[in-house]
Design goal:
This is Transposase. This protein has two helices and five strands, in the order βββαβαβ. The chain has 76 residues and is an alpha/beta fold.
Amino acid sequence: MTIKTIGLDLAKQVFQIYAVDERGQIVMKKQLARAKLAAFFANHPPCLVGMETCLSTHFWANKLAKFGHDVRLMAH
């Protein structure tokens, strides 16, 4: 399973992750608690991560970028 892109839905306590491969097929749907989100991305090979802007978006974007991910923010 090669994850090309991850969509990250930010929330207060439980985050939703949707990952697709190079063909655009969903290869992972996962819920992560806030405390486990950084560890997930730190242990995942760098990829494109998209997330909708909200109050905590820039905090998470900077944190994920430090792990080597290409983070893109989308205005809603």
